[in-house]
Amino acid sequence: MSELAGIVMERLTSEFEAARDPGRATGMAAYMRDQFPFLGLPSPIRRARARAALAGLPAPDADDLRAIALACWSRPEREFQQFACDHLAAHVRVPGPGFLDTVAELITTKSWWDTVDPLATHVVAGLVTRHPLLTERMDEWSRVDNMWLVRTAILHQLHYGELTDTSRLFGYCVAQAGHPDFFVRKAIGWALRQYARTDPDAVRTFVAAHREQLSPLSIREAMKHL
């Protein structure tokens, strides 16, 4: 662990522990189907405590970002992983394209939507924008067996708007239209619904052309505001 990572984790642990709320933690864990223990910190409190922990510290480099993220992933309480997602998103301009391997490790470890989605839509999205050759990795992820990598490939363009590569967006959706998992089918609908804000006619046309392939959930989500 880098020196900065050690300081961050020491400060963060102190701040988070001081705000621990066991009563709230029980409900938060239940909401996540009791997959992870929680400290009981709502997002506003978690982020305020994180700001206090980071105050006055130097900006991290790529090695620091990796060390901090992995240290957070090694902690049992979910708030540490949620902090790591925020921290990576805030510094997504720092690492190079090779950092995608670290993000893949995070996506496929302790996987659930609360970490996968911000990693997909902010961290992976930022890396791909800055390093366009990573689109080839998204093509690979869109076809793998791991559903969280598939979900990430589908969602990484969620906030691209007019910069969306529609051939990839629609191609990924068609390729995974029959996926058996809820989270992939939901991601397809969510990605299409979001892109409909930019080009509603394109989404209507796509859904009409692939209605027999897309799941009812994906169609319902895609057409929600059309």
What does this entry look like structurally?
- The chain is mostly helical and 226 residues long.
- It folds into two domains: 1-95, Leucine-rich Repeat Variant (Alpha Horseshoe); 97-225, Alpha Horseshoe (Leucine-rich Repeat Variant).
- It contains 13 helices and no strands.
- Helix 6 runs antiparallel to helix 7.
- The protein is globular and about 55 Å long.
Write a concise synopsis of the structure shown.
The chain has 226 residues and is mainly α. The protein has helices spanning 3-18, 22-31, 43-54, 62-74, 78-90, 100-107, 113-130, 135-141, 147-155, 166-175, 182-195, 200-209, 216-222.
Please report the distance between the alpha carbons of the first and last residues. 49 Å
- The CATH C-level class name of the largest domain: Mainly Alpha
General shape: globular
* Number of structurally distinct domains: 2
Could you say what the CATH architecture of the largest domain is? Alpha Horseshoe
CATH topology of the largest domain: Leucine-rich Repeat Variant
Low-confidence stretches: none
Q: How are helices and strands ordered from N to C?
A: HHHHHHHHHHHHH
Beta-strand fraction estimate:
under 5%
Strand runs, count: 0
**CA radius of gyration:** 19 Å
User: How many individual helices?
Assistant: 13
Strand pairing plus helix content: what structural class? mainly alpha
Determine the fraction of residues in helical runs and give it as a percent range.
Answer: 55-70%
Major β-sheet, in short? none
Mean pLDDT: 98
